[in-house]
Amino acid sequence: MTQLRQLEATVRALKGAADPTRLRLLALLARGELTVGEICRVLGQSQPRISRHLRLLTEAGYLDRFREQQCVYYRTPAGGARFGWLRQLLDQLGSEPQLQGDHDKATQVVAERGQRAARELPTAQDLPGDAAALAALVLETVGPVGIGELLDIGTGSGRMLELLARRAQHAVGVDISAPALRVARARLHGAGLSHCEFHHGDMYRLPCEDGTFDTVTMDRVLADAQHPQAALAEAARALRLDGRLIVVEDFERIEAAAGGNPLRHLRQWLASAGFTTQRLRPCDLPDGHYLIATAQRSARREIRQ
After folding, report:
1. So where are the chain's domains?
2. Global pTM?
3. What does the pLDDT look like over 123-155, one tens digit per residue?
4. Which partner for 274 in 180, 230, 269, 301 could form a disulfide, CB atoms 3.0-4.6 Å apart?
5. Smallest Cα–Cα separation from 271: which of 242, 232, 235?
6. What percent of the chain has pLDDT over 90?
7. 249, 224 in Cβ contact below 8 A?
8. CATH classification (class only), 2-120
9. Smallest Cα–Cα separation from 213: which of 247, 245, 167?
C-alpha cells in the first residue's frame, strides 16, 4: 500500500509539471525569487492564470512560497524531494529560445526592482568604502576550505553574499530591511547567483531551524545591536556543531558603543554566546579600522547577559 501511495504521488508530481506555462515558470524561478506581479510581466499572462499555475506547482513541491511584508515571492527549492527531478528536467530543457526570452525579461524586471529599492535605502547602507581591501581580508580569513550552507545575518544589500556565495552550496541572506533585500535580490540574482535566497527576519529570531548552516557571517552588525550577545547566540543556534562564524566589525563603533577595548568586548560577546574564538585581529584600512573574527560553536552553549 505504501508503494502504491508513493507511485500515485509520483504521478501527481509529474502531472504538476506537465504544462508549457508551468515549465516556463520552473525555468524562470530556478534563477531567483519573483512576485506574482513580476511573473505576469515576464510571461505576459493574467494574474489569475499565473496564480493557478503557481498554486499547482507549490502543491506538487516544485516551488517554495514565502511572504515578505506585502509581497509574496516564489522560487524553486534549494533541496528536498523534488530538487533532483527539477535539476534533471531543467537540464533537458536547455537553452530553448522562449526560456531565454523569459530570462532576459526577468533580468530587466529584477533590475528595475533593485533601482526602486535603492532609492528607499539610506545612502550609507550602499557605500562600498574600501571594498576591495576589505574583501581581500575576508577571503584570506575564510581560506581555501568549503563554505557549505551559508547564512549572512544582517545581509543589507548583499555585499557579503556577493563575495562568498560562489563558494557556497546554498546561501541565505536575512535582514530586517525589505528595501535592502530587494536590492540584494537584484544584485545577486542579476549576477547569476540563483542559489542565493533572501528572507525578511530579525537577527534575534532567525527564520531557520537549529543547526542548519555550516558558515554564518555577520558584517558590521554587532556594534549597533541592542543585545549583541543575543544576536550571536542566534547565530550559534543556526550553526552546526562544527560550523564556523565569521564576524566583521568596525573597531571605533564598538569602542563607542561598549567603551573600553573593542577586542576584549568582542571576545567576551562570543564566549557568552557559546563560541570559541579561533582568531581575532584588528585590520587598518584606508577608510577605517576593522576587526575580523572567526569562531566555532561550542558543544555546550550558555548565554550570559
Report:
1. 2-120, 124-297
2. 0.77
3. 434 444 457 888 888 999 998 888 999 999 999
4. 301
5. 232
6. 46
7. no
8. mainly alpha
9. 245
* Parallel, antiparallel or unpaired: strands 64-68 and 71-75: antiparallel
Residue position matching grid coordinates 544584485: 187
Amino acid at position 253, single letter: R
The cell 510581466 sits on which residue?
41
Instruction: Put the strands of the sheet holding 213-219 in their side by side order.
Output: 196-200, 168-175, 148-153, 213-219, 239-250, 288-297, 275-285
**Which residues in the chain land under pLDDT 50?**
1, 123-129, 301-305
* Residue 198, number of CB atoms within 10 A of its CB: 29
Q: Determine the pLDDT at residue 125.
A: 44
d(CA 103, CA 63): 18
CB neighbour class for 93 (10 Å; exposed up to 12, middle 13-18, buried from 19): middle
Burial (Cβ within 10 Å: 0-12, 13-18, ≥19) of residue 223: buried
Q: Give the integer Cα–Cα distance in Å for 255 and 266.
A: 10
Options 3.10.580.10, 2.130.10.120, 3.40.50.150, 3.40.50.300; CATH for 124-297 is 3.40.50.150
